[in-house]
Amino acid sequence: MNVGTLVGIANVGLWVCITILAIYTLRHYFFTLNRLFGRHRQPFVDILQADWPSLVVFVPAHNESRVVRDSLDALLTCDYPEDRLKIVPIDDRSTDDTRSILVEYAENYPGRVVPFLRDGGIPGKAAALADAMDLHTDEVFLVFDADYIPGTRLLKQLVAPFFDPEVGAVMGRVVPLNVGVSLLTRLLDLERAGGYQVDQQARMNLRLVPQYGGTVGGVRRAALDNVGGWRVDSLAEDTDLTVRLVIAGWDVVYQNRSECYEEVPETWESRIRQIKRWAKGHNQALRRYIGALIRNRSDLPFWQVLDGVLLLGVFMVPLVLLAGWLCTITLFYAGYPPQWGRVTILAISSFNTVGNFAAFFQVAAASRLDGSRERIRMLPFLFLGFLVSTVSVGRASLSRASWLRGQPVQWQKTERHREGRAQPPRSK
Amino acid sequence: MGSPTMTFALLLLGLLVWMSIPLIPAFMELLRPRDAAPLDAVGNDAGNLTYFAESFTARATREGLLGTMVPPRLSDGTAVRTHSVGQPLPVQRRAFDEFIVLMDSEPLPEGTELASECLARLTVRGSASVTYRALLGQRDVYLGAKSVVQRWVHAKGRLEVADNSQLWGRATADRQIVLGTNVAFERLESDVIRVTDMETAEAPVLPTGAYERFVPKKARELGPAYWRVEDGVSIPAGSVLIGSLIATGSIIVNDGARITGSIKAHGEVIVRNGAVVVGSVAARDRVTIERGARVSGPVISETAVVVEAAVIGSSGKRTTITAPIVRLLPGATVYGAVMAAADGLTVS
Amino acid sequence: MIGLEVSWSLLIDLVVLPLMFAVAMFALLDPLMGLWREFFNLIREPLGLPGVVATQVFEVGPFGVAIPYFTATAEWPQSLDINTGWLFSGIIFVIGLFLKGRLLPVGYLLRALAILQVTAQLWFTFASPPFTYSLSDYIAGLLVCGVIILVLAPFLVAFTFHIFDFLLWQKLTMATMLLVHLSLLLPMQAAVHAWVIHRASVLAMPILFLVFGVLLDVFVYVALYGWGMSWRSGGVLDAIDRRPPTRPERYPTTRPRPTPTPQSVRAITPIGSRMVRAVSFGGMLGNFVMRRLGMNPGGRS
Questions:
Q1: What ipTM goes with this model?
Q2: Angle between helices A237-247 and A125-133 (to 10 degrees)
Q3: Could you tell me which chain C residue has the CA closest to the CA of B170?
Q4: B344 in contact with A at a CB cutoff of 8 Å?
Q5: What average pLDDT does range A159-163 have in this prediction?
Q6: What is the helix (H) or strand (E) element at residue C163, kind and residue range?
């Protein structure tokens, strides 16, 4: 291959990368502006009184002895009618004390805490949920990870949207509890704010595709059955379910005020494992459903299809960014062809300034909407977080698990750091 | 200057220092955090309309306002003033900043403005055009015509509001709320909420077999008794739809028809005279519940809800109406809550 | 939910303020370039840079900006440079590998820099001179880019900062701070780049261009922006300030414990163990039109 061909390929590659990145950049700006100026759509937040449907709350747990008590205690103090609520912690092959803790709760709260103890079958959260749900015929299922600490009103808030028969799944907002522990937790706090307060809520406002995130959310039994239940071979059962529901015409609702505390990773190693896992699962869903989503475009609103495609591709962006850098480096060494030089440098410079800034704008806007101010000063450190995420997601996206079929699914969970009992801040 | 290397070192140092100046706030926040507490996200007041009233009751008890001797000041220094038959508020003064305790049912002078909270120990018989910042009635509360409540009102018995009043914030009662006409409101909650004492004609609920079975045409079945129609649907009078229905157009439930599940329309929903929806009603556009109709579940609209002399919820099963705009007509009866995010009004 | 509103004053802040700053910046470019030239003249000889401080005219329509730059040259890397480069890259990479725990992201940064430098090492090992870019062209390009950023920066500030409900003086301060900072940063950055490339050969040019060029300027804006966004605005966004500043505790305060089911109830309840098993422009425009019509699009809640 001569240098001219290489430069040509790099030039086209760079423009493709810049175009893709520009679309995501515009999306960031558009969503942020929508949140700042658009109508806030939250049609279910005021449903306070109702004949609440029967509800099962699943708490998948695999070696969660450090945190599961907090989660169960919080669920038990929720104000959902006791006769309509079952809490089903799922122990899947834990090797620590998780199982004995669950049995202890079952004895202390008979009929209210009903553990599902699992020793065989396909490992993984999706398979565990599928097996556990088979045993229950209730109308609504909610799922909480074992480190999540819901507020007393959260269950009702998350169930309320299901009074709209078109709603297939609901997602609440995840709020980091261990914000002040390290630089990483502070950066994750900012990222979560951007992701929920702006990204998810804007998609809700615009009737696009808010994502069911697999925890602090739930699904309607009828909708789950309609789309074929949980896919047990899925690495990201939440994204997988979201896309299938949307394709089938169900609404996925995001409830910005249904907030639940979580423990975010406190070490970079743990964060890298978490984001790699998300990337692999998301890319698996991209491979599986992008075709179906586009084929069903006549049944769905155009913008919903577009947002669905962008949502599925979101973990490919770091790979595109890395490819863009590769093209830039190639072009730099080879020298710009004179006719393209100025345009290319202008494109790179523009993207460097306006494009790179979009995420910071989103995070800052989200924090202001949350009523936070001083934490926004941490913004420049997000460069470090983005670098780690870009490299980790890029590597995960290149891994076999992202693309090949039939990969074994196993429990992969985020390391817990909690010592002693967790207590959320006192409510107002 | 010294050698080029030394000059460069100084230049580099200058550059680094200059570059670091914008980073100072970031490092200060990292090393001495001022805003690193978890988001105080889950507020108690959000899903509990009587939260303020409960807090206020606790405070009133703590401050001794319910005892035989009312203290002249609260613990935070706020002056307390009482109003009773024997010691009424001065008529010549209209506005009061003090915390007011109504000792008996002596009406406040017409046009009085209470800028602080007000505690009523017995039944309140409000005069016309009185403005309350917040009012807690230990028994029934009757607000005169053109009354204004700025933040909240709670009656531990019955709350009755005369015509042309304005209830901003929360209006709640333990037993019943009765609203006159042209009463503006935002959030109402009680066992039962009525607009005027006019009798409501409730639709009779007959056994399912008494109706003609209706199955929507060109419907996609999402599950057992769960339908989706890519169009509008009109459910014929006197028929029954067993299950739930989603329509991308409008849904009209004609006279005397019955739906055993819930309905959702991307367009408008009209539940006509004598029709019954056992589940909920949701719509992106307006929902109209006509005279004599009955809906047992929540009524949700992203635009507006209009309730004529119909019944929403039932005495054993409280429910919610929620929409940016809510209009309640005389005879409307709601068991539970009415939430009008932008504009609630009773109209004649 | 509290949000911002499209108003005439906001539109003025978004259009007029940046235009004003851009025009002022454009008008001040000549004296600023004079200052840069003075600075370069002052520092060129002590830095040991050969050549002179020349001027290139950057034309924008009928206007021209005379941008100073160094005419210093840089060598094609010799074997000593290449070997030093390998050593430097290796050390940086190894340090990056050893940085774990809290310093892991710094380790990633170092490794990324090392990999970028390795691409330069490989290129200059196998390619033959001359390199496409001369040092003087590079410096001139860097400064032209800087001048473009200076003129366009007010628009970025307007779009990302003025759009919030900050007070006018805060908006003016933010834009001024950025422009002043960049005006001083850019010539220092250029001088440092010139010296490094002159001394270390064009081997250092790729990493300086890719990482320490425009990206550095963006980083500076992010830092200033993060600071500015933490100011009290006095507007609606301050009204939702939910927390007083507090030093965080790990898991503060207490929460009620659930009440266990009474023994009498437990006795009659079977314990299952296994079974137990627009902006949308449409949106903006819509809100604006509704407000003009006297309606309240956001609601009062």
A1: 0.91
A2: 60
A3: C301
A4: no
A5: 97
A6: none
